[in-house]
Amino acid sequence: MTTATKPNHIGRKIARIRELRGMKQETLAEELGISQQSVSHLEQSETLDDERIEKIAKVLGVSKEAIGNFSEEAILNIIGNTYTVDNSSAVNYGCTINPLEKLLESYEENKKLYERLVQAEKDKVLYLEELLKKK
Fold it and tell me: Does the keyword Transmembrane helix apply (predicted)?
């Protein structure tokens, strides 16, 4: 029994990254200065030259290596290993943060910033009063 390995199809990887970024072929084409049909042709190509991959990677906001090493299985593994949902409750979206805690943290941070601002104003008033006394 032999197993055939999938070819390293660079066009499919580009198409999948583009889709994951929420970008349409037309947008990628416009950014690259080519037609949408050219992008379609690129995404059907099994290989591309390094210079073209570099330009595409820049537009997609990833590195050239990220395109070359892109793996759908790796993405699924990352999602599977980091996102868990407890099915014991009726509605659970897998939220890992407590919004109320975040709100309280934000409130405390704002309070500290306000106190620093008040202290800076007090220091400024003291400094100006000292300048007036010297005159």
Answer: no
Cα→Cα distances 94→1, 68, 79, 80, Å? 41, 31, 12, 12
Per-residue pLDDT tens digits for 74-133: 766 666 666 555 555 445 555 577 778 888 999 999 999 999 999 999 999 999 999 999
User: 62 and 124 share a domain?
Assistant: no
Read off the pTM: 0.52
CA distance 121 to 35: 58
Strand ranges, E, within the chain: none
- Retrieve residue 85's tokens: 């949902």
Residue 89 in domain: no
The residue out of 53, 82, 111 marking a domain boundary is 82
Q: Which two tokens stand for residue 12?
A: 């499919």
Which residues constitute the domain of residue 43? 10-82
Are 70 and 13 within 8 A, CB to CB?
yes
